[in-house]
Amino acid sequence: MNKAAILVAGGKGTRMGAPISKQYLPIGGKPVLMHTLSVFQEVDPQIKLILVLPKEDFAYWNQLCQEYDFQIPHELVAGGNSRFQSVRNGLDSMDWKDGLVAIHDGVRPFVSTEVIENSFLEAERSGSGIAVIALKDSIRKLSDDGKSFYQERQYFRLVQTPQTFQLAKIKKAFEVTEMQQFTDDATVYEHQGWQVSLIAGNPENIKITTPEDLEYGEFLLAKKSGR
Ligand SMILES: Nc1ccn([C@@H]2O[C@H](COP(=O)(O)OP(=O)(O)OP(=O)(O)O)[C@@H](O)[C@H]2O)c(=O)n1
Ligand SMILES: C[C@](O)(CO)[C@H](O)COP(=O)(O)O
């Protein structure tokens, strides 16, 4: 079955507060996005890689690829004004009739190869494979009047990416008008009335968001490379 990955990196990284967008910042001396593309290639060099970037960053990215002699083949697609729009642009760029597509945040460079493989397997079997992890802390629900309430944490999961789908179904799901509840791709799929299937994510698969995440990322990379 044909496999593709859409790596969304069309955001501005405002919470990072850095002079350049977080997807280009170095971890272990190499831009975040190059780590992410490398993990997918490691899983299977046949996976078609689609990288969604702000259009105005294309020249900068090409320059980085030259500077780092980055050779992994990938296609560039222009991002949109929201994550939803960026994913949709990635999907619209694909003319395949069927196959599987993993949608992944470009700023999650520490996803494991096992999680990617399992998400493809589950999507092939059931339509979708969404990476999630269990909570370690207790959680409380807040009400508008300032109260808080106990929640049974065994019924909750933290949602990561990849979120992998049968292409025809996720393309159909993204024909919908964008809604506020679409904070990820699973909610767009589910809006069609289809049940999503969860798979175990990996705890290191953090979304690089704030400066502390870069420090933790350096630690994770050193651990991964046995330093
Ligand atoms: N218009 C957008 C907004 C976000 N993303 C991508 O979606 C992923 C998750 O979003 P987030 O971590 O919120 O990234 P930013 O929007 O860049 O961060 P911030 O909210 O701090 O500006 C990132 O890989 C980001 O680049 C995207 O492709 N297009
Ligand atoms: C898709 C996501 O990473 C799943 O946890 C998350 O919803 C992205 O949220 P953000 O608001 O774009 O950071």
Automatic annotation (TrEMBL):
Cited Gene3D superfamilies: Spore Coat Polysaccharide Biosynthesis Protein SpsA, Chain A
Catalytically driven reaction(s): 2-C-methyl-D-erythritol 4-phosphate + CTP + H(+) = 4-CDP-2-C-methyl-D-erythritol + diphosphate
Alphabetical keyword list: Isoprene biosynthesis, Nucleotidyltransferase, Transferase
Family: Belongs to the IspD/TarI cytidylyltransferase family. IspD subfamily.
Residues the UniProt record annotates as site (Positions MEP for the nucleophilic attack): R153, K207
Phylogenetic lineage: Bacteria, Pseudomonadati, Bacteroidota, Cytophagia, Cytophagales
Pathway: Isoprenoid biosynthesis; isopentenyl diphosphate biosynthesis via DXP pathway; isopentenyl diphosphate from 1-deoxy-D-xylulose 5-phosphate: step 2/6
Keyword Isomerase applies: no
Site keyed Transition state stabilizer: positions: R15, K22
Role, per record: Catalyzes the formation of 4-diphosphocytidyl-2-C-methyl-D-erythritol from CTP and 2-C-methyl-D-erythritol 4-phosphate (MEP).
Protein name stated in the entry: 2-C-methyl-D-erythritol 4-phosphate cytidylyltransferase
Xref: CDD domains: CDP-ME_synthetase
Annotated InterPro entries: IspD, IspD/TarI, IspD/TarI_cytidylyltransf_bact, Nucleotide-diphossugar_trans
EC number: 2.7.7.60
Species per Swiss-Prot/TrEMBL record: Algoriphagus pacificus
GO MF term list: 2-C-methyl-D-erythritol 4-phosphate cytidylyltransferase activity
